Amino acid sequence: MARALEQGVRIIAVTSRPSDFRMLFPLYGRRDGVRLALGLHPLEAAKVDLARELSLFESYASHTSYIGEVGLDLSREGKASAAQQERALDAILAIPGVVGKVLTVHSRGASAAVIERLRAANATRVILHWFSGSLAELEAGIDAGFYLSVNPAMTRNEKGRVIIDHVPRDRVLVESDGPYARIAGRQLEPRDVSIAVHYLAKLWALSRDAVSTRLAMNLQKLCDDL
User: Which residue, 132, 119, 15, is CA-closest to 73?
Assistant: First the structure.
């Protein structure tokens, strides 16, 4: 965190469980340069006392303007818990005020289903995190007004690069997805968003300062009035 803030990187830190948010909020919830998001990762839905975690989610929703990570994961890893995941996401989107916040959304293997649910709930401040769906699904998300966050790992594989190529510049944000994502044999951390910024600068034929300005404008628009 200190290394990121020293480099001028501001952090939206997602959580995997509301119980984690409850523990971390007193430490980091009001720290300069850091915003803590309230999340329930879809792959956690079958591992926790779901009723208890959803109760905590509702209790803490008013403590932050940022929600994440939430969503669905219907990949091989997540298919068995699809029912619990859907129950969790539907319950979260039904909590008063949640759809007006910034939502960081996981959609691996479930892009169409996630976008449909978000649109039905009238969620607009949506960040599609590490999007890996089809270009048609990406277009549906863009049409709904959603943003896409680019991480360094996406820039290192062909599918990720194709997706990045198809996102309008005014809908792009950057993320590290650390510590889960890795690059060059090490865990990514927040300051590593600079790798994604460098990639975008080459792709858009702009200076890194110009890209950083564009990204700041995008984030400001997403978070306007929060």
Answer: 132
* Nearest residue to 171 (alpha-carbon basis) of 121, 226, 120, 131: 131
**Domain ranges in the chain?**
2-222
Neighbours of 155 (CB within 10 A): 18
* CB-based contact 154:130 (threshold 8 Å): yes
pLDDT tens track, the chain, 226 positions = 899 999 999 999 999 999 999 999 999 988 899 999 999 999 999 999 999 999 999 999 999 999 999 999 999 999 999 999 999 999 999 999 999 999 999 999 999 999 999 999 999 999 999 999 999 999 999 999 999 999 999 999 999 999 999 999 999 999 999 888 888 888 999 999 999 999 999 999 999 999 999 999 999 999 988 7
pTM assigned to the model: 0.95
Which overall architecture, per CATH, does domain 2-222 show?
Alpha-Beta Barrel (3.20)
Helix, coil or strand: residue 207: coil
Number of H helices, E strands in the chain: 9, 9
Residues in Cβ contact with 54 at an 8 Å cutoff, skipping those fewer than 6 apart: 18, 40, 88, 91, 92
